[in-house]
Each structure stands twice: as C-alpha cells, then as structure tokens.
Input
Amino acid sequence: MGKIIISNVNDEERNWDSSLNWKHFEQDDEHKHSFELQRSAVSNPVLTNGKLEVYFYTIPPGKVNFPYHYHTVNEEVFHIMSGQGTLRTPEGEKIVSEGDVIVMPAGENGAHQLINTSNTPLVYLEVKTSTVQEICVQPDSEKVVLIAPPKFIAKTFKMDSEVNYLDGEYEFRNRLIR
Output
C-alpha cells in the first residue's frame, strides 16, 4: 500500500544518490566528463510499491544529464526549478529555464537530452511513469537499453548486434530430452 510523501528541494538533509556513479557507464576519455548530475529520490516504485518515479536532479554548468534518448513505454515530466539549459528534441534545441514544465511522451517524438549551458547549476524535478519493463533507445549511438525493474537490471546493446531468436536453443533442447 502506498503512502503520502512530502519532500522539499531546499532540504539540506537531502540524500543524494551515490549509486548513480558514471564510472559504471564506462565513459571513454572523450566523454569522461560530459555526463554529470546529482539525483535524489523522492519516490521510487521499488520503495513505495507505486507506479511513479520522482527525483530532484542537479546538472552542473557545462554538463549533460543523459545521452540523447527516448523511452518506448514510460513518459517523463521535467519541472525546471532553477537555472537555465538547452533541451534537445527531435524538433531541435530549445532554451528552458526556471518555471518551465516539459512533457516527454513515450516514443521517438519524446526523444530528449538536457544540457546545462549556463554558469549556474540547473535544478529540476522529474516525474515519470515506471509501470513495466522498458526499452530506452539512444538514436545518436544506435543503442538500445533494456531496463527491468524492480531491481533495475539494465543492459545496453548496439542495434545491429542481433542474434537469431532460437540461437542456442537446439543444444538446450537436446540436453532436456536425453
């Protein structure tokens, strides 16, 4: 059963997610310092047994939150709380600033990337659905990320690395019928 949660972006006791460690994403030297952010969970389906994820994010000046991507199932909403940045979308780049609310639908039309192009931190609230396993597509690098809650198993693949659906199944079947 869910519970009511109240959280404040100005809370100095906020617990920033130390598990969001970019080293895990094995950045090469060219991209080593491009992607950087802080995240603090307000609500997470794993903890609340709900269907929404809610986070506060801070992107330092000159940094990017995530690679350009879209979700095939889940939707996202960003509320820019302070700062200014550039939102990259299929329609081009748009300046976003304090007070803006951005709704990203699932699918290619909702592709996005948030870049802090200012000299101050960009702080935003993210609310997103998290109802099923998800496929996230990164069009720039032609990759797909398979995401399986609740333990957040995430695996990344190049789109052109395909195997036959029955690859390896014949050998397994033969072991079963012996």
Q: What stands out?
A: The longest strand covers residues 52-59. Residues 22-131 form a domain with the Jelly Rolls fold (CATH 2.60.120.10).
